[in-house]
Design goal:
alpha+beta; Multidrug-efflux Transporter Regulator, Chain: A, Domain 2
């Protein structure tokens, strides 16, 4: 796995559009760094964001079961 992804690479990896990835970044759900004119997402930041989503899904499913 790479350590740093461009928006286009990340969109392809996750099966989302580049615009959807940018929205996640601009809304603060996915940290990114801008170097020059290009936004980059570090793998560790992506992994942390995905873990947060999984925790939220588990929490939501537990609330529905009760």
């Amino acid at each position: 796995m790479k350590e740093i992804y461009t928006i286009k690479e990340l969109a392809s990896l996750l099966g989302k559009s580049p615009q959807a990835i940018r929205q996640l970044i601009y809304r603060g759900h996915l940290p990114a760094r801008k170097l020059g004119n290009t936004l980059y997402v570090f793998r560790r930041d992506l992994e942390q964001a995905l873990k947060r989503v999984e925790r939220q899904k588990k929490k939501a499913s537990k609330e529905v079961e009760v």
